[in-house]
Amino acid sequence: MKGINIIVCAKQIPDPEVPFSNVSVDVEKKEVIVDAPNVISPYDENALEAAIRIKEEMGGKITVLSLGRKVSDTVLRKTIAAGADALILIEDPAFERLDSNSVAYVLSRAIRKIGAYDLILTGRQAGDWDSGQVGLLLAELLGIPSISLARSIKIKEDRVLVEKTVPVGYEVVEAGLPALVTVSNEVGELRYVSRSKMMGLLKRPTPIPKWGAKDLVDDLERLKKIQLVELSPPPDMRRACLFIEGSTPQEKADKLASFFKELG
Amino acid sequence: MSELLLLVESKEGLLDKTTLELIRGGSELAKDLGIDAAAVVVGNETSPLAESVASYGLKKIYKLEHPLLKGFQPEAWAGALEWLARQITPRIFLISHSFVGKEVAPRLAYRLDTELTTDCLNLRIDPQDGLLIRTKPIYGGNAIAALKCAGLPQMVTVRKNAFEPMEKVTTKSDLVDMVPALDESIIKVKSLKTVKEDVVELDKANMVIAGGRGIVAKEDFEMLAALAQAMSKSQGKVMIGCSRPVVDKSWMSSDRQIGLTGSIIAPDTYIAIGISGAIQHLVGMIRSKKIIAINTDPGCNMFKVADVGVVEDYKALIPALVKKLEESA
Q1: Predicted ipTM?
Q2: pLDDT bucket at A1, cuts 50 / 70 / 90
Q3: Within 13 Å, how many C-alpha atoms sit on residue B168's CB side?
Q4: B195–A170 CB contact, under 8 Å
Q5: pLDDT score for B96
Q6: CATH of domain B3-186
Q7: Interface size between A and B, measured as CB pairs under 8 A
Q8: What is the mean pLDDT of residues B289-318?
């Protein structure tokens, strides 16, 4: 196979690494308020890294497809700086708060609009709702084989070879292309994007094509919103922390050792 | 449209505890709706597992048998369960949020044209319309959402420990043989081999010593190993774990990862070293009896959930602690 056409589905979410004190719940409006910058969902970053490694090995094209609202173009452009070739944003008020089935449907419409592809990569789950469904649903909608929880992906002629994490270790599986693979974090972190590279890119930003409902969906009735009955804050996790003081590390270590002695 | 159906899973050939939890939760929901609860065992030879699940008060056990269901191939299992669901049209379908559940449930939900909610913590019936109200953590556990979905069967995956495991009863369930119409052509993903690895089961540890992003070098985990060695003399079974960034760096395998997408554990003692305490990590260890945090940042979240904290560089503290523990042993 010469050059591979990869589509990476990447969702933008508020940084899930943020301290829990920055997250609150508006019970009335049934909304989660996160005081954090947007990032690409971490497993989607792993998926992009996997795509870039495949492209480095055999050449090809990576298209990043992102569905979201109020997204930051700068965050999206980081995917280009890392090694993606094209970027498409799917944005429309009609696409807000969709359930997993509908998200997969909109993505499937966008992928059909893109046309030719060999491989679709998604993160194993998004870092906000953690549903872990959209990838597999998307493959069903497109009628292509799907493999989940990849820790390594290789292309061999017209087939994809995947090492996937299973409870006893890992399993090596293969499927014919086109196929969809969901990626786990064992694949590795997205490569570092230098500030200067990012700044250079932002100086002459290429416009990001935006597709909305009229471009993708004929029958808006087909889209279903998440039906939230109630949203509540989590149980309080805080404990009263006893800090061990001391003027030297050894003094602290000695006090900590006696604490463990009482425990043991 | 009368039954509640749940998927039976095994671990090393024996009935998995999560199945007993599903039976408890499922039996209560079925009782609320005045319907029967049933289970399905999938495989090429289902008798032993079906026999063992027959003692927990379910009305029926469906034995879904076919040569293609040997081992676990997600497409074959989804195909067989789709066939069964079309035969018996269950009203509710419960599946564990396990490896098998995560593979099968979304594919099955799509094929049955229904909506799935994954990783539920609690389930109840809305008395108004009889639909399932599904409670699940979102934003890594920073909020708890209760939601409803249309579609039949009402389908969910359920998190481990969401319900107490069911106890045995004196009556036996009816066993029903079912042979699904399956064809090899539905299998598009071919398994070439499964490689067994030494998988660490962190939930078996009395004490877990975990390192995070704050650990600056891979070699520094040797310090944690030395601490584990010293602790094992007085603290029972001690294991090394980590937070997600450590796995991302390939310094540790994912079986040692603690958190939302790793292990969710509740050891007697948890020592967090260089872990800032992102919520998705906290979800995995917050039920530990004692939490000890070691970090250079006094403002980090791990101290807010810890019982004991030490603000210190681990590189200075751990060797000193190992030395002291060995002296006093």
Answers
A1: 0.92
A2: low
A3: 8
A4: yes
A5: 98
A6: 3.40.50.620
A7: 253
A8: 96
